[in-house]
Amino acid sequence: MTRRADLTTPRERRRLGVHYDPDAFGEFSESVARNLGTARFLVYQSVFCVAWVAWNTVGPENLRFDEWQFVGLTLLLSLQAAYAAPLILLAQNRQEQRDQSQTETDRRLAERNQSDTEFLAREIASIRLSLNDVPTAGDLEDQLERLTNALERMSSRLDEMTARFDKDDVE
Q1: Are 153 and 87 in the same domain?
Q2: What is the structure's pLDDT at 21?
Q3: Which residues lie below 8 Å from residue 170, measured CB to CB, with a gap of 6+?
Q4: Do 106 and 67 share a structural domain?
Q5: 70 burial class (0-12, 13-18, 19+ CB within 10 angstroms)?
Q6: pLDDT value at position 171?
Q7: Of 11, 30, 138, 146, which one has the greatest count of Cβ atoms within 10 A?
């Protein structure tokens, strides 16, 4: 290997083999898993196996394609299982990643909702405390009555004093 002048960045890794889009392959595996898990697929596969067995058992001998007793069918079903299992596992892994992502999003949302709820609770408590200091109509009526009484007393005393001064002035 030749030495590079710039050692600050890592070397590109050489990959051998097939290059593919992981998302496209993941979507393909999910569609396969979605179809393999249906009753329709089981019915189609059962009909196919029954037709295979019937044709190779009862069909004309010169047109039978499975020369040995159902070895071809066994090989075909094994091949299907060999490809179906990894595709189903890949689809499950993708679903698990989506579930984890959704769980993380739900957790962050729950934390934000909790902090908002706590903030609103503190605000409501503050408003309640502030409302305790606000006078009610009854309090205002009591104060007004006291002021009225005080003014009446002052007015009566003023009248008394005026009367006394008038009396002193007349004499």
Answers
A1: no
A2: 79
A3: none
A4: yes
A5: middle
A6: 65
A7: 30
